[in-house]
Amino acid sequence: MDTRKNKEGLIGRKAYALLLVLGGGACLAIAMQGLLSFALPTQAGTSVNNNANEAKEEIRTAKIVNPFDGLSLEARAVYVLELKTGSVLFAKNENKKLPLASVTKIMTTFVARDQFSPNVVVTITRDDLMADGDSGLHSGERWRLGDILDVMLIASSNDAAHAIAGFVGANGYPDETHADIARANFVHMMNEKASELKLDQMQFFNESGLDVSFPHSSQLAQVSILEQGGGYGSARNVADLFAELWKKYPETIEITAHKNARIISSDEIAHILPNTNEIVGNIPGLVASKTGFTNISGGNLAVIFDRGIGDPIVVVVLGSSYKGRFDDMQKLVDATRK
Questions:
Q1: Residues 246-272, buried b or exposed e (16+ Cβ, 10 A)?
Q2: Collapsing DSSP states into helix, strand and coil, what is residue 293?
Q3: Most exposed: 198, 279, 296, 319, by fewest CB within 10 Å?
Q4: pLDDT tens digits, residue range 127-147?
Q5: How many beta carbons lie within 10 A of that of residue 68, not counting itself?
Q6: CB 57: neighbour CB atoms within 10 A?
Q7: Are 58 and 318 in contact (CB under 8 A)?
Q8: Which one-letter DSSP state was computed for residue 222?
Q9: Sequence spans of domains, the chain
């Protein structure tokens, strides 16, 4: 019995020793593998972390470049608005009340379309042709309202504006003997519309935006002639009005995105008219534009263009020079696209 136990004990001790040897080697191998696998990721992770920290530092210290910074502009007032979000991209004296010149015709268009269908017929009178400028209209010539609005907008026709105001102000029944009353009524409607839209700086004295003159008596009883703009408003007001007109009557201002247009009256008389916006072909995605210039206002320009699909931008320039309004606008449009 003792001999068998001794043999079994000896066998057990040898087996245990063998297991220790084998187990120790395996543990050592596992331990080495673990050390290697742990060490390598740590080095890689350190490298990644260092690179990430360096990148964060570069971002933190990098100067954010505003594309509008440093622009040299002649305009007294500027407003650039992203219509989709309502974000103001750039502004300069945007709430300052300034003369609008023919940018006034944006409101003329709005009031006319609010009151009448584009299919009603407007007849040009001799009195209409007395307005400053000549866009080739004829006394007695008949026009669809939609078409005569096209003439007014693309060519900035004062004759057309005169005819539209006389027609709408007379509720569609113009009478040459009461034409002044009808146009005064139309201007009243323009000012009411400005109030309705909460365009607080807008004020109109005629339908065209032409400068107006009136006598003024001083304390010394001397009578002098004073001049003022035919319409006033801020760059912000113009942007809001133009955007609202585009949303409500987009087809009415579509003509202003073209370099020229061939427009035919109801009497089958064709009129080929160039756009008063000289850079109409230099603004990709142009949706609408309206120019304005008088001696009092200087150069004005308002445009709506698509920066991308479904990303309309409205830009307004007021109080620049005749040529400067186009240069200013081009700089602003280019900056908006950067």
A1: beebeebbebbbbeebebebeeeeebe
A2: strand
A3: 198
A4: 999 989 899 999 999 999 999
A5: 17
A6: 10
A7: no
A8: -
A9: 1-62, 77-337
Residues 6+ apart with CB under 8 A from 34: none
How many whole angstroms separate alpha carbon 26 and alpha carbon 22? 6
Nearest to residue 278, comparing CAs of 260, 296, 265? 260
The answer to whether the beta carbons of residues 325 and 291 sit under 8 Å apart is yes
The pLDDT, as a whole number, for residue 337 is 93
Burial of 15 (0-12, 13-18, 19+ CB in 10 A): exposed
Q: Is there a contact between 153 and 253 (Cβ–Cβ < 8 Å)? A: yes
Residue with tokens 């001397």: 222
| CATH number attached to the domain at 77-337 | 3.40.710.10
pLDDT of 77-99, one tens digit each? 999 999 999 999 999 999 999 99
126 residue type, one letter: R
- What are the structure tokens assigned to 317, written together? 């320039």
Both structure tokens of 115: 């009151």
User: Is 226's pLDDT higher than 70?
Assistant: yes
CA atoms within 13 A on the CB side of 147: 22
Closest to 112 in 3D by CA, of 163, 51, 184: 163
* Active site (catalytic) residues: 102, 105, 156
Rounded CA gap, 15 and 290, in Å? 101
pLDDT over 80 at 76, yes or no: yes
pLDDT at residue 179 is higher than 90: yes
pLDDT at 287 over 50: yes
The answer to whether 97 is a known ligand-binding residue is no
Q: Which residues neighbour 70 within 8 Å (Cβ) at sequence distance 6 or greater?
A: none
3-state secondary structure of 72: coil
Task: Examine the pLDDT at 202 and tell me if it is beyond 50.
Answer: yes
| Distance in angstroms (rounded) separating the CA atoms of residues 219 and 59 | 66
Confidence of residue 285 (pLDDT cuts 50, 70, 90): very high
Q: Mention every residue, 6+ apart, whose C-beta is less than 8 A from residue 56.
A: none
Residues, the chain: 338
